[in-house]
Every structure is written in structure tokens, then in C-alpha cells.
């Protein structure tokens, strides 16, 4: 009996002085295993459990031992003396289905009825009063009752889970959160709470699953996902951080925060081409934000990036072709005796023809992926080797010789045979333009003028 009494005293001290409910409950339970006839141990154990049904069981066990125990009678009156239904919230209520006739509704699901909303407000008011009176466990009951009505009520979950965690009832807190998750909640805060619990319990597989679901949640803000990714990086779980960021970019493709972090992950992994790709995407969204400025700074330290938007741009192709026009305009000016007024309409037509020929040549060589031209001509997406074909995975190319980094391509390219034909057409058109703009000079080169016969110097000497 001495061992049981020692455990009893230590359990009471744990509850009264250290406020360690979990340890106090454990010590009292061990004491009652040795001496189940200690009614005071049963009463202290009643204070150490938050389940109303179990609490009443402890009180009834104490009264069975001593029916005249005034503390036990007072506690029973407190929890059940008014005839109200106690134990509406029990461990089974947390883990099992809701009572018949009552449906648990996620906040984004069916709207609450006015009666349900009124009932929730009453439960919150009662919970606040109980907290002020120091009756935390009774307040938890009220919040759990709210969750019976609205399974993912954020305020009720935050209070209930917070206090349960302080009381060391982590498993019960987890059950409340997972009920909301299984009901299809769309609240990011519920996922974040579940992630914190999984991390606390070192359940990393569960944490990974929750992070992935959070990343795909349409209601989540990109800054929330960025914080989750930062925590994964801080714990050196880089591959998982990359997976979560990639999944999040599927629903947030224009998030500078996520694009910048993805660039950082690739850079830390030594994948410079991929890092440049993501930094470029972030910088193109603007440099007014911190992430945009940092991404732009990273780009300035890197090579130029060739993107699909540039490959498929018709405007850029015509801009390159305009360079041919400038060259042919200079030839026309020289052919006109370096007098612009003497160029004439024929040479100007030649300059325009040169631009057209230049466009055909550019299309065949440096811009074979113009949209929608390439698609119209039956082009297909090239593979890593540059050959037309279906690409199964984005390919990042880095050409160090010219300092050019290429983004993975997803747009079709004109078939090689057709590119050859277009290139030959461009060369032919440029030849016609050359004749129109530089015709007189070419004629003189082919048929040079014979200078008139001049008297030899010896003729002057003879005179």
C-alpha cells in the first residue's frame, strides 16, 4: 500500500504544483491499479480527465467506496446535478460519427441554419465564461460541441486544439483536426494545425501528405505554402520541399514567392539552368516585390534566358528580318550614288523584298517555332536533341559558349524538310532584292566601262 500512497501523493503534486495533467493522470492511474479502494485518488483522477463520461465514472467509483463523501457528491452535482445531458462530448464523440439527425458541416459546405448559428454563439459565450472561471476542460466541451455542428469551425478548433495541447492531450487534438480534414475542409489553418501536430509527433509521412494537400488547396495563400516550404528547407528536406513547391505552382503559376523559392532550390542543387528559368519567370511578373527584385538580381548574375515566348514570337522574327532591310537600304543608297533622293521606287521595293526574304530565312534557321505558323505547318514539339517529336519531360539546355540558357520547350517546330524549302525560298527572294537594290552596281561589276585612250607620256616628250 505504501507504493500506491506514494504514487497518489506524487500524482496530486503533479496536478497541483506542476500543472502537468498527463503525468498526474499517469501516476494516479498507477496508484489505483495498486489500490483501487482509494476514493480520493478517484476524485483527483476525475480532475485529470477531460472526457465527461470518464470523469463521471471516476466520481461514481469514489461514491461506491464512500457514498457519504462530500467532495464526490459536490462534483457529481456540478457535472450532473441539474439533469442536463452530460457526456455529450466524449472520446467516442471525437472519433465516431455525429449523432443521428445531426450532420457535421464544413464551413465551405452547406450553410448553417439560423438556429445552428445561434446555438454556436451560445456555446462560444459559455466557453468564454468557463475560461474566465478557470474551468478549461468544461470550456473544451463547449468548443467540441461547436465542432459537432460545424466540423471545421476555425475559432473552435483553434481554442480546443490549443488547450488540449497545453493539457498534453495531443491525440485528442489530432482527432479533432482530422475529423475536419476528412470532412473536406478548405481552411488552410486546419491543415497547418495538422502539420504542426504531425511534426510534433515526428510523423513525417503524415506531414508530407498534409503539405502536399495544402499546396493544392485552392483557398490557400502562396505565402502560407512558402512558409511550409521554408520549414522543410530548414530541416534539410530539400527533395520534399521541391515536390511541394512544384505541386503548388500548378495552382499558383504566377506566384513570385514560389517561383523564387523554386529557383533557390534548383540553385542549391547545382541546377543553374533550371534556377535561371524560375528566376526569369519570377522577374517577368515585376520587380516591385522583394521576391521580384531578388529574382532579377539573380538573373543579372546569369546568362541570358531563351524562353518559349521568345521562340514562338512572330514579332521577334520580323525584327530580325528588319536587319536585312537595313543592310539592303544601305546597298540601295550606295547604288544611287549615295544620294537618298535618287534611290527611286524600284530600289525601295527591293528593300521591302529583302525584308520578306530575310523573314523566310530567319524562320528556317533561328525562329522555326513561331506560333501559330509552326503549328499550321504541321510542326511537333522537339525532343532534347532538337528533333521533332513528343517531349515527355521538360529539358533544360545550357550553352556556355554563347552564355545562353534555354528554357524547356513545349511548342511545336516546323518540320526540318519544310525548313529547308523555306530557307531556299528566302535565299532566292534575297537574290531578287539584291538585284533590285544594287542592280546598277552589279551591272558595272559585270560590264566595267573601258576608259578612253589617253596619249602616252612619250608623245609629249617627242614634242
Task: Describe what this molecule looks like in 3D.
This protein has a 3-stranded mixed β-sheet. Strand 2 and strand 3 form a beta hairpin. Helix content is 66%, strand content 2%. The protein is mainly α. The protein is built from 23 helices and 3 strands. It has helices at 2-16, 21-34, 39-47, 52-65, 70-80, 91-95, 114-132, 136-149, 154-166, 170-182, 188-200, 204-215, 222-234, 238-251, 256-268, 272-284, 290-300, 308-311, 314-335, 344-365, 373-376, 416-446, 457-462; strands spanning 304-306, 397-399, 404-406.
Give keywords.
463 residues, mainly alpha, three-stranded mixed sheet, 23 helices
* Range of helix content: 55-70%
Radius of gyration, taken over Cα atoms and rounded to an integer in Å: 40 Å
Please provide the count of β strands.
Answer: 3
Low-confidence stretches: 81-103, 388-403
Largest sheet: 3 strands, mixed
Number of helices: 23
Strand content: under 5%
Q: Give the SSE order as H and E letters.
A: HHHHHHHHHHHHHHHHHEHHHHEEHH
What strand order characterises the main sheet?
1-3-2
Question: Alpha-carbon distance between the termini?
Answer: 156 Å
- Write down the overall geometry: rod-shaped
Structural class: mainly alpha
Query: Whole-number average pLDDT?
Result: 80
